[in-house]
Structure formats: C-alpha cells, structure tokens
Amino acid sequence: MAKHLVIIDGMGFVFRAYHAVRGNLSRSRDGLPTNALYGVAQMLVKVVDELAPDLCVVALDAKGGNWRHKMYADYKANRKEADEALLVQLPYVRPMVEAFGLPVLCESGFEADDIIATLVQKRAEMGVEKITIVTSDKDLLQLVGDKVQLLDTLKDKLSGPAEAVEKFGVGPELVADVQGLMGDSSDNIPGVPGIGPKTAGDLVAKLGGLDAIYADLSKVERDTLRAKLEEHREKAFLSRELARLKYDVVWEAIDMTFHPSLHNAADYLRDELEFNTLAARLEKRKGRATGKPDDRKTVWRPVGDMAGAALPVVREGAAKWGDYECVQTAERWQWWLAEARKAGRVAFDSETTGLDPYTAELVGVSLCVGEGKACYVPVKMAAKAGASADLFGPAEANGPHGAQGLDILSDLKALLQDEAVVKIGHNLKYDWLVLARALGITPDDTHDGLQTLVRRYEDSMLMSACLDGGRWGHGMDDLVERHLGHKMISFADVAGKGKSMVTFDKVALEQAVAYAAEDADATWRLAKVFAQRLQEEGGEDGKGVRYVYEHVERPLLPVIVALEARGVRVDEDELRRLSDDFAGRMALYEKRLWEVAGHEFNVQSTQQLAVVLFDELGAGTEKQRKNRSTAVDVLDDIAEQEGTKGAMVAQVIGEYRQLAKLRSTYAEALLKQVSPVTQRVHTSYQQVGAATGRFSSNDPNLQNIPIRTEEGRKIRHAFVAGKKGGDWVMVSADYSQIELRLLAHFSGSEPLRQAFREGLDIHAYTAALVRGIALEEVTKEQRRAAKFINFGLVYGMGARSLAGQIGCSMSEAQEWIEAYFKRYDGVRDYMEHNKQFAREKGYVETLCGRRVWLPEIASSHGGLRAGAERAAINAPLQGSNADVIKLAMPQVEKAVQGLNARLLMQVHDELVLEAAPDAVDALKKMLPEVMGGVVSLSVPLAVEAGVGPNWEAAH
After folding, report:
1. Last residue of a domain, which of 142, 160, 178?
2. 219/226 Cα distance (integer angstroms)
C-alpha cells in the first residue's frame, strides 16, 4: 500500500503567492512579471525537498465557469478582475509544474477543490494510507481526518480535525453546514443574513446540520435567530450546496507516482523564468554541476487549460475577422439564405438566454457562408395565443432587438432540412435541441421531426475530438487560438461578469453581432481545417480517424439528441418513499446509538458524537481522541475494535451516514432534477468527454447511480417506464465482459478465445487454467482472485496491488500473474506491442481506428512514462468498447422504429429502453442480434437482455 499521497492546490498558491511575494520580480529579456511563479516554485521545491511522498498530483482550476456558477449566477461575482500582472503569469504555471515531473489534474466544469475531494474519497481505492493537501484554503477543512491533513507551506502549519473545530466550531463533516449559515464573502456565497461564524458554529454544534436544524426550528431558542432562519431557508441550503465539495469528478487515468524531475525543473526555472538561485538549489540537491543545459533539455511552452493555444496555423490569404452584418430586413435575410444555398455549406450558431436547452429562449441565429462572410439575425418571437406550457413547446425570446416581420424560424427550418446544403455547427447538439424547442418539435416527433431536423451536417467539435482525443480540449475558443491564431471575443466581454452579467437578449446589438457572427465564422474555419486533416490522416477503408468521425460519431448525434429530449421517467412517489424509508431507518439507528451511549445525543453533531466515542466510551487511539475527528477513516479503525461499545457506535454511525448520503445525494437530488412538465429527468451526454471516446453524463450523472450496494441499487428502482400509471416496462441490454472479449480478439490468445466461444465462466476458467486444476474444483476464493487478474492486468495492476486485493503474499501474487501470461499466450505480446506502437506514433488506436493520444509516452520522467504505457495497454480496450456501443446505438434506434419502444439511456456497457408489453418479446430477440452484430470479432459479442418494471429489475 502506498503510504503517502500529496495533493497540491495549485491555483490557491498562485493567487496567494502573487500577493505574498513582494518585490519587482520580472524576467529580464521581456519584463514578464514572475513573482507569483516564484512563490509557486518555492512551494514545489519545498515539496520535493521535504515531503518526498509516494504519490503526488497538482490540482488546477479549468478555464471558464463550473457547476457552482450554473447553480448560482452570482457565485464569486464580487471578485475583482485579476491584475494583468498576474494573468500573464498563468500560462506558465502548468508547464512549470510538469517540468518538476508532477502530474496535473484539471477538469472542465469543476474547481480544483472538487478534484481534491474526489481524490480523498478514492483514497482506499488508490491504496493510499495518508494524504497531505498542500493548501491554505479553509474550505478543504471539510476533508481532514485522522489520515488526511492540510499543510500551509508558507506558514509551515498543519491542520486536521482539531483545526476544523477551532475554525468552524464543528468537525469536518459539518463544515459545509456552518458555511451554509454564515456564507462566504470571498466566494459571494450569501448564507443567512445576520448570522456570523460564531453563531453558525454554535448552532450546528448544538443542533446538528441544516437538515436537523430545519426539521425542528422550535429548538432554536432566540426568536430573532429563528425568524432569520425561517426567512432565509432557501439561501441556507443553496449556500451549503455551493460550499460542499464534489466527490464524483471523473478523469482519465494518470500515474501519480512521485518521481521528481530535478533536471528538467532546474532547466525550466533557469532558462524559462530566470530563477537562477532556485535552479542552483535543485542542481546542488541533484549533485549536478551548474552550466549550460545538455541535449536532454525539454522545450517548454504554455499549454493546456491554463494557457492559450500553442503553434497556431495561420494561413496566408485568410479573410479578416470582424466585418459582419446584422440582418434586419426580409431582403437581406433572403440574400443570406440564397448565399448559403449557392455555397452548398453554411455554418450556424444559436444565441440564447441560458445554457440549458430545455429552458433557454432563442435570441438570435448567426450564419457563415465563407471565411469572414458571416451575419447575425436577431429573432423576436411572439407568444402563441392559448399555447400550453411544454418543455419542448415554442420558446419566446423577448430581447430588445429583433428582425421585424421576418419568418426566421420557418425559413431556418427549411434550410436545415435542405439536403443540398451541408450545415456545420460546433457542439451541434445544443443548437439542435434549442431550435427543436423553438419550432415546437417534441420528443414524440423523434423519427419524423426531431432526428431529421438537421439533414446533412458536420460538427467541428466532433471532428477535433476524433483527430486529437487526449491531446487537448475541444472548446471553440481554445481551438481557434490553437489552429487559427485568433483570440475570440469572450461572453464576458459582451455580457459582463457576476452581478453585472446580463442574458444575451439584453446585450447591445452591435456587440451581439460581433460575438455571434464570429462564432459562426470560427465554426466555418475550424471545420475547413479539420476536414482537410480528416482527408489527409483518415486511414484505411473501414478504419481510421475519418471512419470514426463519419461512421461512429457523426451518425450518433441525432440519437443523442433524441435520448436527451426523451429523458427518463423517475417515480417521484418511489423517491419520496425511499427518502422516508431512509429517514425512518436513520431514526432507528439513532435510537440504537442512544441505547449504547446510555443517553440521548444529537447524532449529526460531530462534537456530541466525539464526546460519546472518545470521552465516555474511550474509543480510538490517543491521537484520535486528541484530534476529535469522527471522519469515516477514524470510524473504520474504531469499528475494528470488535466487542466494544465504541465499535458498535462506529458501525452504526457508518450505516446512518450511508443512508443520509443516499437520501440527500440521490433520492432528494433526483427529485429536484425532475422536469415539472414531463415528470422525466433529462441528462446531458458528453459524446467526446473522454479521450477514449467513452460517454460521460451530467445533471444527473447516470454513470454514478449506485449499483454496488443493496441500498444503493434501490435508487434504480425509481427509474421506470412510460407514462404515470401506464403498463410499459424497462428493457436493459448489456454487453457481457466486452473488454475481456476485446482482449481475446486483439491478443490472439487461443485459450482466451476458446473460453468465450464455448460460453464458459471466464473467471472460473482462468482460475482453473492458471492453477492447473479442473474447472469444477475451482473455489470461490480462487475465482475471485482470477476475476481481479482478468480485469486488473489490463489496467496496469501489479503484484503488490493484487496481493492487497486477494490477501496473499507478493510472491504468490506474482506467481498468479506469471502463470496467467504463460497460459494466455499472446496477452503479454499484445501489451508490449501497444506500448511500442505508442512510442513510435504518440498514440494508440481502437478497433475502428480512433486515436487516443498519449503525450507522456516519450517523457523522460519515469512515472509519467509508466502511466502512459499502462494507458497504451488499456485505452484500446476502453476505446474499442466505446466504438462498439456507439455503433450499436443508431442501429438499435432504427430497429425499434416499428415497435412500441424507445431507447432512453446509455450507461457504461448498457442500453436501456422503455417498451410496451407487446414489444418485449421482439426486443429480447432483436437487441442481442443487433448489438452483437455491429462488428465482427474472433469471439462472439454476448448481450444479455432483461425486462422489468424498473431499471434495477431489468438489469
């Protein structure tokens, strides 16, 4: 087990260092300010010099907003614009960190704090015993525990549960509840007006979290305080959600092994930033003489989410940006439509009042028919008399400007459906959904309306993802700067920020034209660049990046549009019943805890629980009793003291908290995400969310709906079919062990292929083969060990990890692994081939030829290179898995058109449908045939289809 993980809150130190490091530090050759970079560099040197962890990672904020801004538009709105002297330093942060050989995590839509929280949550899964978070952010006190601490390197101060109590008056588990009451002026989190830190801390310490406080406000003794709480209930719960950290951030696997690259770090600090003293310190520590860098020197430049783009391709003769037209007469509108048809191609973009396609109102549309040849058409739509509210009913845009007397939408629909004209979008899915709603096309019009709304189309975002998956992001602004050398107008430039930000319908017309038309122009130019690359780099027939785009990703787009528009029904009554059930059982656990303690106490109060555990029952170690933490890692330790009252309390409180999390995170949260119009949940799929091509989803994250525990699976019971009171059922079709089947296909291992051809239990078969025993002699323990090997080896699992998983010695685990490779001939060769291919090409390929780029495969840093080599083994399997299910979805969608059934969800290796009873038999026969036949492999693709009244019953 790795002893120690250090997580560095990168951006927190950047801003703090900027204000803390005094003096006019700058780079002599061009005057670049470097004081913030110097402070961060000092911190990194301190980590290298003093901490020497087993694992290390730096968490950074991504560009743009995150889920908190979507929840609360005024989040951080009070913050002033950062100084220009700081902004110019930001592009150098990530390359400096990477020069030290430290891996970086930076995920769009999340703050660094959320990434850090997810890492802490995954501590056991990662085999980590202790975590040190290098930060000065008080919000991260939510995470501290007996084995998780904060380190402020500027003050040389460690913080744990005791410091959480000192700061907030409660333990880590209730810090967010205190913040919900007191707010946070630095992040513009409102809290309850008139309640400060001390009152908030005292209240939560005495009564428990917000749920407990608001469950019975009569327990609040002061009338004025009780009135404030009642009046600002919504603000309190909103503020708690804003303050809470996310624990479900998903990222591509990286190697966090701590192998600092002092050579590259010294070179970068000296040559790029002119930090000669720090460079000399590192060189001295390395024992390397100072002097000119040798031929191993890496060329560093700003990259990634925090930098603009590098190496733009600026073509001679490219048209200028910015000379665009505002269309406000019927004559000019018809001229642009004619130009689009003459060109045979048109790039377009929609402008709306928000980011949610189901509620945003259409404000305007921009068109581009050639480089620099673009226009913006303001749209103003009158409400239809007697129209009923509908999630997909006609939208109403009430902007201050509009193209009077123009039938914009009907003309636009005709253009979108004109098969003689190719339509080009960037993230076309959003525009598709917005325009469908504006036109009144409903999810029920799927086959003759919604999916055929846009005919003959291209998506420059999908093109970029197919060409450069894993190399960089695919947002328009970054791609334009990277490939075209142009800086786009930002939304903040025209709409403002924070409290001063307005919706697009209130943006001045001149600014609206410049912003919107530039988006269409950029889409045209990007598509031209990517189309040329797809032609040049496309690959062989039936395989390659062009095939992936034209036959996998592009045909899938209308299916994704349909899935999102349809949504899935959740039984609100069942969710409420589950919530009540969880609450009732929590009450029983509460009584049991009182019985063990011998008196009543507030179970949600960490202070009162600490008194019971540590003072009255004497549970835990001396250090745990001193720290007073009741975090999960401490409770797990105490629960192992079998036969003691402390162990009983720790076990019961663990069950109590599990139910509390299920209740708040799933049962209650899903209720809030149900559309009041459709009674359905409409998730958003990220078609290009991962470098491997695998789907992700959010609002809600379907991939995270619990499945591993009996209590968690109950949430899936609430996902049901059809209309309320109907007799439709859920149908689930799931690929069985698809990645192992792909391994058998790619590796050519005949024993592995034979097992799948004969339909054997692959894990029992592996155990029998490796141990040299008959299949019927395999024990449960041996099958379990074989299962870990089957799935673990392709994820880079070694003997140490296997030994920890199955409880054996490292030598025995190594024997298992060696025997596996010996019996399954070809598997090791497949792995080595993939690594060599990646070294030569810089990427690996999937079944269909999707490229998964691995930038660190040639790194001089051993840890980064090893992580890339593991990805070279696994990425083709994960990516081929994505290829297969993406190929299957349009075929399944087409196959169900004649049936009383609809495709609803894609989750991992599973497709979920709803169907009338008369369609079930046909579906159970058709789904395995269609899904199993999308590709031809050397082993069969097995698909298991199930039926039930809800998702869990069908799975």
Report:
1. 160
2. 9
* Integer Cα distance of 852 and 854 in angstroms: 7
Q: How many CA atoms lie within 13 A of 121 on its CB side?
A: 13
- Tell me, what's the pLDDT at 403? 53
Residue 694 corresponds to which amino acid? R
CA end-to-end span of the chain, whole Å?
Answer: 35
Between vectors from CA 660 to CA 590 and to CA 567, what angle results, nearest 5°?
A: 150
Nearest to 638 by CA among 117, 834, 625: 625
The residue ranges of DSSP E strands in 704-806, in sequence order, are: 719-720, 729-735
Q: What is the pLDDT of residue 187?
A: 84
pLDDT lower than 50: segments of the chain? 1, 286-317, 381-401, 404-405
Q: Is residue 553 part of a domain?
A: no
Angle between helices 738-747 and 827-841 (to 10 degrees): 80
| Residue 698 domain flag | no
Domain CATH code at residue 388: 3.30.420.10
Q: Which helix (H) or strand (E) holds 792?
A: helix 780-792
| Same domain flag for 350 and 433 | yes
Please report, for the domain that includes residue 149, its CATH number.
3.40.50.1010
For residues 509 and 601, membership in a common domain is answered with no
* CA angle (249, 253, 259) in 5-degree steps: 115
Residue range(s) defining the domain that contains residue 98 = 2-160
Q: Which helix (H) or strand (E) holds 152?
A: strand 148-152
Q: Is the residue at 464 inside a domain? A: yes
Short-list 936, 751, 940, CA closest to 847? 936
Q: Are 542 and 411 in contact (CB under 8 A)?
A: no
SS3 for 848-905, per residue? CCCEEECHHHHCCCHHHHHHHHHHHHHHHHHHHHHHHHHHHHHHHHHHCCCCCEEEEE
One domain for residues 6 and 93: yes
Is the link from the previous residue into 260 a cis peptide, with omega within 30 of 0? Answer: no
Question: pTM value?
Answer: 0.68
Question: How far apart are the C-alpha atoms of 319 and 517, rounded to whole Å?
Answer: 14
Distance CA 860, CA 154 (A): 30
Distances from the Cα of 598 to the Cα of 591, 601, 641, 645, angstroms: 10, 10, 20, 11
Is the domain of 522 the same as that of 602?
no
Cα–Cα distances (Å) from 254 to 487, 844, 854, 885, in that order, read 31, 16, 10, 25
In 195-289, alpha helices (H): 197-207, 210-215, 223-231, 233-243, 262-267, 276-286
pLDDT at 413: 94
What CATH number did the domain enclosing 661 receive?
1.20.1060.10
- Strand, helix or coil at 257? strand
Quickly tell me which residue has 């919107």 as its tokens. Answer: 516
pLDDT at position 954 is: 95
Instruction: Give the domain-ending residue among 505, 529, 545.
Output: 545
DSSP reduced 3-state for 41? helix
Same domain as 526, residue 607: no
Task: Give domain status of residue 579, yes or no.
Answer: yes
pLDDT for res 398: 41
Non-local CB neighbours of 2 within 8 Å, separated by 6+ positions? 54, 55, 126, 127, 128, 129
The total number of structural domains that make up the chain: 4
Question: Residue with structure tokens 């040559």?
Answer: 271
Report yes or no: 92 and 46 within 8 Å, Cβ to Cβ.
no
Residues 667 and 536 in one domain: no
The mean predicted confidence, pLDDT, of the chain is: 85
State whether 529 and 664 are in the same domain.
Answer: no
Do 670 and 753 share a domain, yes or no? no
Q: How far apart are CA 931 and CA 831, in angstroms?
A: 27
For residues 119 and 131, the answer to whether their CB atoms sit within 8 Å is yes
Among residues 813, 780, 785, 794, the alpha carbon closest in space to that of 872 is found at: 794
